[in-house]
Every structure is written in C-alpha cells, then in structure tokens.
Amino acid sequence: MEKLNLRSDDSYLEVACGGGVLLEMALRTVSRAAAIDHSADMVELAMERNKAAVDKGIAEIVEGNAESLPWPDKRFSCAACANAFFFIEHPQLVLSEISRVLGPKGRLVINTLPGKLSLAGMVFKRPYNLKAYSDEQMQLMFYAAGFRVAVVNMVSGMQVWVAQKP
C-alpha cells in the first residue's frame, strides 16, 4: 500500500480484492474506494470486513470480472491488484480496463510472481495454472494499456510493479 502513496482525496480501486484486507487499509486514508472480485465468497468476506465503510457509502464492493469493470471512465485516482495478477486469464485486457477507469496521472501497483519462478516455483509448484511474466512482457503490457512503469522491486519473493498514467 505504501507504494501507492495514498492521500485523503484519493479514490481507490482494488482489483481481485479477496477478503478486503487491503481495502480496509486503504479506507484508513482515502475518501472513497471500490473493490471487485470474481468470487462471491470473497466479496461476502470483504463486505463483512468493510461493513462500516459500505454502510457510510464510502466503499463499494462488487462481484464481477476485472476484464469488464463496472465503473465509468476516469473514476479513480489509484488502483491496486495484490497477489492475483498471476491468476488472471487475460492480463492485457485487465490492465486496459484499469487504465480506462483511472484518471490522468492515475497510479497503479501490482504485485505478482517474478518472471523466473525459481523461489516461487518451489513454493507453488504451479498447481493452479499460475502465470508468471518476464519483465519485458510486463512492461509491454503496461505500456500497451497506457501506463509508464516507474519502479519494479522485489519484496518477499514477489515483484511489485508501480506504474502511472501520463
């Protein structure tokens, strides 16, 4: 979350929110937030965890497909996708959708498996059809979606990509 440099005037989007832990963290800072996950069970958990914010109307959590985000163009100032990008079937489409809903200078942080699955491969052994992309593939996907990559770091065996729209 620190890589997003969240501000009180931010409107935050989380793609593949899971149980809503990061959403809860973001809501400590941002003025409004939304999240999407394809799993009804995860959406239910995220709703329970963030019930107060949902009830106040500052958070919206929906079940849906990240390939077709249900929000209007330029709705958000920042977005995150944590520990899920490697499951996404059409990552270019998802990045393009995130770009669509982010406004100018919109910030995006994605943490994912490194392209070389050395350590990650030992842990996961690829049982879930995990997709790992090379640095070049990731950069090309970001650029094709209209992002400029600012930083790539390794944190606890995961790649953290920080990108921004012009």
TrEMBL record:
UniProt keyword annotations, A-Z: Membrane, Transmembrane, Transmembrane helix
Domain Methyltransferase type residue range list: 13-110
Gene3D superfamilies: Vaccinia Virus protein VP39 (3.40.50.150)
Keyword set includes Transmembrane helix: yes
UniProt entry tagged with the keyword Protease: no
Residues annotated as transmembrane: 140-162
Protein name, UniProt field: Methyltransferase type 11 domain-containing protein
Organism of origin: Desulfosarcina ovata subsp. sediminis
Organism lineage: Bacteria, Pseudomonadati, Thermodesulfobacteriota, Desulfobacteria, Desulfobacterales
